[in-house]
Structure formats: C-alpha cells, structure tokens
Design a protein that fits this description.
Strand content: under 5%
Number of domains: 1
Shape: globular
Structural class: mainly alpha
Order of helices and strands: HHHHHHHHHHHH
Mean pLDDT: 85
Number of strands: 0
Distance between the termini: 36 Å
C-alpha cells in the first residue's frame, strides 16, 4: 500500500510539473508547496532533474522542426565564424587574401533566432549559477513562493494589457534578448513563473505574440539542460532504491505528456489575452501560502 501511495504521489507531482512548467503559474513554486503538503520534502534533487527532463522532452516533441533547424544553423554560425577567423589571420599574413571577403554569419532568420537564444541564455546561466544556493533555500518554506506568486500574478496582468507587437527574429535586438534572459534567470525563484515572466518580458520588447510563446519554450531548453547538468553530480546521491527510480521515471513521463498538452494550449491563452485568469489563481494561492506561513510561525511560538 505504501509503495502504491508513493507512486501516486510521484504521478501527481509529475502532473503538477507538466501543467505548471508551461502554464504561467510557476512549476518550482507549486512543487515546493506540494512537496511540503505531501510530505515529500526530502525526495531530493534526482526527482527534480527527472521531472524537468520530462517537460524538456515535451518541448522537443512540439518544436522538433524548429529545434533541428536552429541546431543546423547554429553549426553554420560556428563554421562561418571559424572561417572568418581564418580569413582574418590570412589577411594579416598573406597579401593574396587582401581582397577576400568575410562571410556574412547572420544571413537567415533562423540564424538570428539561434543567436538570440544564445544571447538570452548567457544572463540566465549567470544568474542561475550565482543564485543556486539562494534558490534552493527559497523553497524551504511557504513565504517566498507565496510572495513570488503575487509577483507572477502582477506580471501576468501586465502582459494582458500590453499592445500586440510585431517583432520576429529579424527585428529583435540583442539588447532585448539580454533583457529576456535576465527575466528568465530571475524566474528561477520558486513562485515566479518562467514562461509567464519570459513571455511578459518579450511582449514588453514588442515580440509578436505567437513568436513570444515559441521563443519562451525553445529558450527554456538550454536553461533546463544547464540546470540539470549542474545538478547531475548529485543525481542518485540520496541512496534511492529501484522502486524509487521507477516511481520518479513514471512521474517524469507524466510531466512530459501533460506538458505537451499545455504547450499546445499556451498559444491560445497568449493570443486571447487570457493570462488574467492565471493571475487571479496566483493571487489566491500566493495569499494562502503567506497566511499559512504566518499561521505556522505563530503556532511554533
């Protein structure tokens, strides 16, 4: 009976991860809350890694054509950049290369898209690495997730009231990419929605709404992979048994399936300016978390 209960808990948390990773209500905040409610605060980093990899697979399934094209164009950027370095060196050492032209590196929309994602990933990575310990501590009680959920709710209301933009990769500046990357980095705090925050930042920068959704989800790939790689050294350090891993894998599969469905629905929410409904939910849940934290503090004293 206990084994079945643990499996059901893992499936439930997988469902929560799949829904909240892509809908703008914060997966980290909900996981922190439900782990405490379900008494799973000690499941450790292995489960978190598997859950995030599950939702990552959902992004790959939904956007595999774009991801493949971006990967190939990224290799093209690398090859042309190396070629230009060689040309530069030859120009300095061989007069026959004086009139050789440099290759235009960013010459397609997908190459610009790929470079924008790389630029956004840099500030996200810096914030994630520098704030790793702070982020882990922030989910140890209900106060921080509660406050962050209120922040998320406010951002969602702002996004609904922003005018429709028309920018696609060719029109987006690298400064905007940095701004969006910073927003995504801040959203690693439990309770701050990664998708909601990044999409709001993109709409502030004038992104077209459908492109904002695609950019947000594809931009999550290096962020999730980077976080998983950083935590990989701790994977399995909890001394888990075979049954635990089976439960966690089932939870990850659940997260992937549910995440895929939510990605498909997200574009409708953004285009229809329906973030306000998620905002109301975040206001209510955030307030409950803060009240519950205050009640626990009073009870302990």
């Amino acid at each position: 009976m206990a084994e079945v209960l643990e499996l059901l808990k893992a499936i439930f948390l997988g469902f929560v991860q799949g829904v909240t990773e892509f809908l703008p209500v914060s997966s980290s905040g909900h996981l922190a809350i439900f782990k405490q409610i379900l008494g799973m605060g000690d499941v450790g980093i292995s489960f978190d890694i598997l859950l995030h990899l599950g939702t990552l697979m959902a992004v790959f399934v939904c956007y595999w054509r774009d991801i493949l094209r971006l990967f190939l164009e990224g290799l093209g950027i690398l090859a042309d950049s190396i070629s230009n370095i060689i040309i530069f060196i030859r120009k300095k050492t061989d007069k026959q290369y004086a009139n050789v032209r440099y290759k235009r590196v960013i010459r397609t929309a997908y190459r610009k898209f790929a470079l924008l994602v790389i630029v956004s990933t840099i500030p996200t990575g810096i914030i994630g690495i520098l704030g790793k310990d702070l982020i882990e501590q922030a989910g140890q009680n209900l106060l921080v997730p509660g406050i962050c959920l209120l922040i998320t709710a406010t951002l969602l209301l702002i996004s609904d009231n922003l005018p429709d933009g028309n920018k696609t990769p060719k029109n987006v500046s690298y400064a905007s990419a940095i701004f969006v990357g910073i927003a995504q980095g801040i959203a690693t705090l439990p309770g701050i929605s990664r998708s909601g925050t990044s999409i709001t930042a993109e709409l502030v920068c004038g992104f077209r709404r459908d492109f904002a959704v695609k950019y947000s989800f594809i931009m999550s790939i290096p962020a999730i992979l980077g976080a998983a790689i950083l935590d990989l050294k701790d994977f399995g350090s909890e001394g888990l048994g075979t049954l635990d891993y089976v439960n966690y894998i089932v939870g990850a599969i659940t997260a992937g399936i549910v995440g895929y469905i939510c990605i498909k629905k997200m574009l409708d929410f953004v285009k229809g300016k329906k973030f306000k409904y998620f905002a109301y939910y975040c206001y209510v849940l955030g307030s409950i978390c803060i009240v519950a934290f205050a009640f626990n503090v009073i009870k302990m004293n």
